[in-house]
Amino acid sequence: MCGATPGVVEINWLGGQPPPAPTGVxxxxxxxxxxxxxxxxxALSTADGKTLPLQTWPLAYWPDGSLKWSGFATxxxxxxxxxxxxxxxxxxxxxxxxxxxxxxxxxxxxxxxKLQARVALWGGDLIESLAVDGREVARRGRLVCILQNGPxxxxxxxxxxxxxxxKVVKVSVEQSGPVRAVLKIEGVHKASTTARExxxxxxxxxxxxxxxxxxxxHSIVYDGDEQKDFIRGLGVEFAxxxxxxxxxxxxxxxxxxxxxxxxxxQPLVGRQGRFVGNRDAGGxxxxxxxxxxRVPNKAALDPRAQGLLADWAVWDSFKLVQPNADGFSIVKRxxxxxxxxxxxxxxxxxxxxFIGDVSGGLGVSVKNFWQSHPxxxxxxxxxTAEATLRAWLWSPEAEAMDLRHYDTRAHGLEAVYEDVQPxxxxxxxxxxxxxxxxxxxxxxxxxxxxxxxxxxGTQLPVMVCTPQYLHSVRALGLWSLPDRSTPFKTAVxxxxxxxxxxxxxxxxxxxxYGYWDFGDVMHSYDAERHVWRYDxxxxxxxxxxxxxxxxxxxxxxxxxxxxxxxxxxxxxRHTSEVDCYHLGLLAGLGSRHNVRHWGCGAKEAxxxxxxxxxxxxxxxxxxRTGDLMREVATADFRMLEFDPMRLAQPPTEEEKKYPSRxxxxxxxxxxxxxxxxxxxxxxxxxxxxKIVAGVESMLAMPYWLRSGRNLVMxxxxxxxxxxxxxxxxxxxxxxxxxxGAEVVFELNEFFDHPGWQKMWLQYCRLGNAPRDVLLQDxxxxxxxxxxxxxxxxxxxxxxxxxxxxxxxWKTKNAAFAKAATASLGRFGGGPVRTTHLEGPVVLxxxxxxxxxxxxxxxxxxxxxxxxxxxxxxxxxxxVPPPEAFxxxxxxxxxxxxxxxxxxxxxxxxxxxxxx
Length: 915
Hints:
alpha+beta, 20-stranded antiparallel β-sheet, single chain
């Protein structure tokens, strides 16, 4: 372990920013092989020696049984700024209150010391009750869905709507303290008037010692018929008991930034100004009421004041609606027979609502509220003894959710790069996860405190190790730290930084927001229309295509930049849920890029692979992501029904005798990543054995990893064995560029099978070498003798440079390093330059990099990050001249990078303000 003191790891808040209010936080830490035993205890302290309560659990193991990753949890707030020291040894600190979990025959009771929660083991309520210091502030928390049996706009008959509520079928205690408790609740949505059950859900509840907040992670899987089942509303609701008189009840909505809409249910103000009670009742109480403080009850007032209270309006219902990313409105009304009146408006609400009285209440915050529009927050029955608080993840104020495909006829590969296969453009089985925070309070929080709660719910706190430590233990693969010590390194870092800056800004400029879209980016750009190809078949949403997720995560690991973490987090949340199938015939597979995220007929394991999700899981310990990685551990069995090459290379009669067919890459390498992940998480050798079965099958083939046309092989998922289908020497351009190389780089750190290491190194060394070279190499193993074959005469594929770099790393043959480092010029080099466009050329002002595509950005980013590490001692000092790389800056389409149109002045995006 590295750090100021041996055995100490430095941890800090993401971006150095502590949370605005005390809260629980969980994070992961990696360890060198053999360094930390399974039962090792740890302590967490601040720089000045103050110890913090700590809980730890294993996330992954090395093959020798030592810890590879540990999960940790603590409770801290703004007063604990960091950095922190994580060290081996028993923690001297214990939380003032520990989390206690007690299970009966019917319920699970959780007590944090401040909050008492009760969760039923079955039934309609997600949370039976929440109490603060013994006083109930919320009850009957449940999921709600409004289902509509057709699209909006029907001419002949309005569609019917039916309300569904969550039905709990299983509750599991995943952690039970002392610092953190986690409950996993599984169920379906059940109709209120019929017997239908649908829309499976998983909800996790997180409780932390001494805290009255609850983190709620809400996941649904769409299992309906997109032609008939249109979700009109989807959310969470709570009943909030109100014991105080109406003048002591308050509603609050958060606006943009620290903006807050805060009003009493009955404001004490009228025709003659603010309310003035009798002297004994406290005089001028209106300022105190607006601050959320207790004001006199009606009985304590003089007759005139009582008359005013009886005559002033009492407001019963309130709504904040965010229909899009650029505007919200607030309305309120006195009763259902009266009109809604406008009460406020703004641009982007941070997504918090509160209802309560001066004796307590409940706030609900939705993370990425405006980014995940259409959303809304709602309070009803505030004038009665029990209000209803709803957080709508899909607002019923919007049109019904329409998951149908974008056209009724097919468009093919030649026309729009779309793989059309009947019946497969389906959303059946896709999922969506939302994150909420519940704030149970013993009073009406002050306005400043409410704003802090809104900020906390918007950006949940994260603790991270330093990039230097993560790099030192080779956490999550092989990657470099930023280094600008030479002109060449500076030029490469400029390219990396400006490409990231461009995409960070594009999310906002292109409005890549919405419930089903937020987190993804577009695939290809139309320089004539000056828009990304949002409507063009397979050139719209990216869906992980060439490792975009991995590019963002490696960019974060090496830099620690919070804005990159947040973008990568949103992308992982999206691509692992929306772009993949979680039930039904397609479960375990993902969808290739398309106008609709599920629209392409190509359903492949490389999109759903655990390799894309590992970064987020291990850095944050997120249990939902852990579930998704476990889902795909058996994804290879889907190959029995879905041959990935069924259209591109139909099987011969001879090939049909095998259970299935797969490509060595990306398919088998994606499965390897799934098995590797499950092996290290469980320690179960059966997952290692599946990798070994495939390795030994290929060792028996004449051309090892190159055996078979397009690297297609027979495959039996029951045994993990691969079979040679023909005598061709194969190659395939997508083998390692869809996450395969990154998976193997990690695998090779602990999978020491000598045959595999030899095969993989040959694949890296010889590239697309001919048959005779492969056969001779098997006999001589002349490592490096044919380095000229890697990228000979400019014959680079997008995956070749990092493989050549790996070959150098292992052989120290400088010829491989030369081929690899040359690629940094071939893939563009230098900063991305953009052109600023405004109307009437475009709808909104945008910065354009006309020849930049996401394929190119992801691949050149991964290449640079990895080559800089693997060839660190062979990098040029100076930047090669442009003429050294014919065509540099002229590549377009599938991944090139070039300059902007010459008739407009280009701008280096480093000089632009941050997004």
